Amino acid sequence: MPEADTAAEARKKQRVVLSWSSGKDSAWSLYQLQQDLDVELVALLTTFNAAADRVAMHAVRHQLVTAQAAAADLPLVAVTLPWPCSNADYEAIMSQTLDSLREDYAPTHIAFGDLYLEDIRDYRLRQMQDTGIGTLFPLWQSDTKALARAMIDGGLQAVLTCVDPKAMPRELAGAAFDANLLTQLPDSVDPCGENGEFHTFVHAGPMFRNALPIIVGETLERDGFVFTDVVPADTDAS
User: Cβ distance 189 to 168 under 8 Å?
Assistant: First the structure.
């Protein structure tokens, strides 16, 4: 193909920023988008709790998310949210973030790893509708039992960093997201934790060029949830 034609074809690609939680759904969305010839991934976008410098609910350290982005060969756009954070503050900060994304990355779309919760998807669509940036949902309406199996069979490796003890055994905090875990989940728990039953941190998989060496650290209960810390293997847990 002539060089001019190649450049024209490249310009047709969707320039995608992926909303990145550090967990398995984000990671599997990344993997799906990496295989889409119509997509050019340009950045990962993550919000962090200002008080703890961690991903909200997942409670994953900023350092580890930075390592994930490096393993995906993508820049990380880190957004700091105050704690507590009102909805008005959140929307104002994200509006400013979109302005910065337009300037720095010129995205045509932002992708989200949502599976089937209509209210969350509708909220995202409303927030994006007047921005000139489209939305993508690579995993939308996937069968979550089949999806969980596909992730595990595909080589994704993750740790449960947050568990809702009202929904599932607290002892599963810190467990690996693997075939054995799926057999231990109560029937009422979604295999992908889509209803907030659990959250994960991905440390290896086909979306990364290298695995992240980690140590599964201490577990504690806070605000009604059970959290397990994950620590980079080359640092201490302080």
Answer: yes
Cα separation of 72 and 48, whole Å?
Answer: 19
Q: Kind of pairing, strands 214-222 and 225-232?
A: antiparallel
| Model confidence pLDDT, tens digit, residues 193-202 | 999 999 999 9
The CA angle 174-179-183, to the nearest 5 degrees, is 85
- The encoded tokens of residue 217 equal 């650290």
Q: Are strands 14-19 and 157-163 parallel, antiparallel or unpaired?
A: unpaired
Q: What's CA 201's distance to the chain center, in Å?
A: 8
User: Domains plus CATH for the chain?
Assistant: 3-232 (3.40.50.620)
| Predicted pLDDT of residue 1 | 44
Cβ atoms of 160 and 173 closer than 8 Å: yes
Check residue 61 and report its DSSP letter.
B
User: What are the pLDDT digits (tens) for 203-228?
Assistant: 999 999 999 999 999 999 999 999 99
| SS3 per-residue string spanning 173-233 | CCCECCHHHHHHCCCCCCCCCCCCCEEEEEEECCCCCCCCCEEEEEEEEECCEEEEEEEEC
